[in-house]
Write a structure and sequence with these properties.
CATH class of the largest domain: Alpha Beta
Strand order of the largest sheet: 10-9-8-11-12
Structural class: alpha+beta
Radius of gyration: 29 Å
Strand content: 15-25%
Number of domains: 2
Bound molecules: zinc ion
Number of helices: 11
CATH architecture of the largest domain: 2-Layer Sandwich
Shape: globular
Length: 404
């Protein structure tokens, strides 16, 4: 399996670069228009329709035509997909300048060389961090925006055969993991929630009635908040993936698709509560864990989230909430931390998905000492038992013969 990772750095573009980026944006929009008019979405047919119409961009090297078409094809595909869900989807149009290259860029020493036209190049200095990250890998593509460069690189990775499972339960203020070696760890995320609530307060104090200024200020704070929260999440996700790698564990997470629907306007919840619940960056954490795990060849599965926090992880019985985020199971008559319980449930569901539990036949053999056989289910087992009996008979026969 090929796994991809990317590294981002800031740069200050020259006039030439900016005009190249702007041309690329126009090319993409041309392709999107043609694709919409001709109703094509596949890369190949879009290429046949667009390639020659892009000829009038004679300032731009021809290698960028293909990447512009491929980007446009991706946008059209996404548009068609969301059109199926929502017929009022906006017609796509690229506003931000950008450039994608996967053919003609070169890395020369500490610099990135981009082709402007035949034998005309732009050079961008790469930061020491970027160089350290990409060293030893082949860079596959380069994406430029008005202030950042993103280099994507890949490697071939064999997906590891997990020896156990690490279940993850994501909560608002913490993330709890539980491994098959029966270790439970809770990582504190209250800093992230706190940062978000602080920025929400700051933004709520803005009351000038000017959309442009508000947009600018929200953008600025949004970026700051994203950086801060992202940092906290990176530390946690790195630790989790390192643990999974060291102990050869597969990762299981809850599938929480559609969680935002629970906290929508009109659901009878307060503004404050909704804001708090929707500020939960579960997706960012999931994204980080998933790409880091894939890079290390660790398999990730998503399991059904239903009942993970309300059912006992030992007996599957319904539990009752207790003081201090504890839950009480009447059958086991114990109190456990509800996050730990949920993580254990996720782990056990993950085990089924990874087929780490013994095959049904073997599980039956252990149990059927006392219980009668159920023929349909235990057919394989019965067969096997008969076979072993026969083998024993043959063995006895052999020993009898040898004695004679
Ligand atoms: Zn129980």
């Amino acid at each position: 399996m090929r796994v991809i990772k990317s590294v981002k750095q800031r740069y200050s573009p020259s006039e030439q670069t900016l005009s190249l980026l702007e041309d690329f944006r126009l090319m993409m929009n041309d392709c999107i228009r043609i694709g919409l008019r001709e109703k094509v979405t596949s890369m190949k047919s879009l290429c046949l329709k667009c390639y020659h119409t892009l000829e009038h961009y004679d300032n731009v090297a021809t290698c960028y035509r293909l990447t512009a078409i491929s980007k446009a094809a991706g946008i059209l595909r996404n548009y068609r997909k969301s059109l199926r869900k929502n017929p009022n989807t906006k017609i796509p149009y690229v506003k931000k300048i950008q450039l994608v290259d996967c053919y003609r860029f070169r890395i020369r020493g500490k610099r990135l060389r981009l082709t402007l036209r035949a034998h005309e190049y732009i050079y961008v200095d790469l930061s020491p961090h970027t160089l350290a990250v990409i060293s030893g890998f082949t860079v596959r593509s380069v994406t430029l925006t008005n202030c950042t460069i993103i280099l994507s690189f890949s490697k071939e990775m064999v997906v590891m055969e997990p020896a156990g499972v690490l279940g993850i339960d994501r909560n608002l203020d913490n993330i709890t993991i539980s491994t098959t070696n029966s270790q439970d760890i809770t990582y504190d995320l209250s800093k992230a929630t706190e940062t978000k609530s602080n920025y929400r307060t700051i933004k709520s104090h803005f009351n000038r009635n000017d959309v442009r200024i508000r947009r600018e200020i929200y953008r600025k704070y949004g970026e700051k908040q994203g950086n801060k929260v992202g940092n906290i999440l990176h530390i946690v996700s790195k630790q989790i993936v390192e643990k999974a790698k060291a102990e050869k564990l597969g990762i299981a997470m809850e599938n929480i698709k559609g969680i935002r629907k629970l906290y929508r306007k009109g659901n009878g919840q307060g503004n404050h509560y909704r804001g708090r619940m929707n500020s939960w960056s579960f997706y960012e954490l999931q994204r980080q864990i998933e790409y880091k795990a894939k890079w290390e060849g660790i398999p990730v599965v998503y399991v059904d989230a239903w009942g993970t926090s309300s059912k006992c992880s030992t007996c599957g019985c319904k539990t009752y909430p207790n003081e201090h985020r504890q839950i009480y199971c009447p059958r086991c008559s114990i109190s456990v931390d509800r996050d730990v319980n949920a993580a254990r449930n996720v782990r056990d569901r993950g085990r089924v998905r990874f087929t780490l539990i013994e095959s049904p036949n073997e599980a039956m053999i252990q149990e059927c000492g006392t219980s009668p056989l159920i023929l349909q289910v235990d057919g394989g087992k019965l067969h096997r038992a008969q076979q072993t009996q026969q083998n024993h008979k043959i063995l006895h026969l052999h020993s009898d013969i040898s004695r004679l």
